[in-house]
Amino acid sequence: MSLMNALAVSATGMEAQSMRMRMLAENLANAQTTRTPEGGPYKRKDVVLESAPGVESSFAGQLAAAMAEPSVGVRVSELIENSEAVDLRYEPYHPDADTDGYVAYPHVNPAEELVNLQAAARAYEANIAAMSTAKDMLRRSMELLR
Predict the structure, then answer these.
(1) How far apart are CA 130 and CA 135, in angstroms?
(2) Taking a C-beta distance cutoff of 8 angstroms, is the pair 16, 76 a contact?
(3) What is the pLDDT of residues 91-140, one digit of tens each?
């Protein structure tokens, strides 16, 4: 893998982790949202990441691409709205309470979201460190070639 490819891989990793952090922050911000424009409580969102291979679709083409360049990074493949059951809380005076006095809250665990946010931040930092190392190696290579 060339150093320029290493920079590209780190850049895609940073972009993917940035998107993941935005979704986690949105989940945290809406942990108490009981009414959305679509109706019902907020639905937790998850980011699905996948490796970003070449565009070749045949097996032989993918094998050749894998042998030539092992990877070109990571990308967000989709955003999934969590379809888990909502958390029902008995709050009869809440404006969104049903006839039995229960309010549907989103199924968002703030502690879990914070742990995932910390993991995403560390992955982002790891990509920054890899990018810095590749940049330093490129600079040193150019100094040697003078």
Answers:
(1) 9
(2) yes
(3) 999 999 999 999 999 999 999 999 999 999 999 999 999 999 989 998 99
- pLDDT of 62: 56
Predicted confidence (pLDDT) at residue 45 exceeds the cutoff of 60? yes
With helix as H, strand as E and coil as C, how does the chain read? CCHHHHHHHHHHHHHHHHHHHHHHHHHHHCCCCCCCCCCCCCCCEEEEEEECCCCCCCHHHHHHHHHHCCCCCEEEEEEEECCCCCEEEECCCCCCCCCCCEEEECCCCHHHHHHHHHHHHHHHHHHHHHHHHHHHHHHHHHHHCC
Tokens standing for residue 66: 């894998």
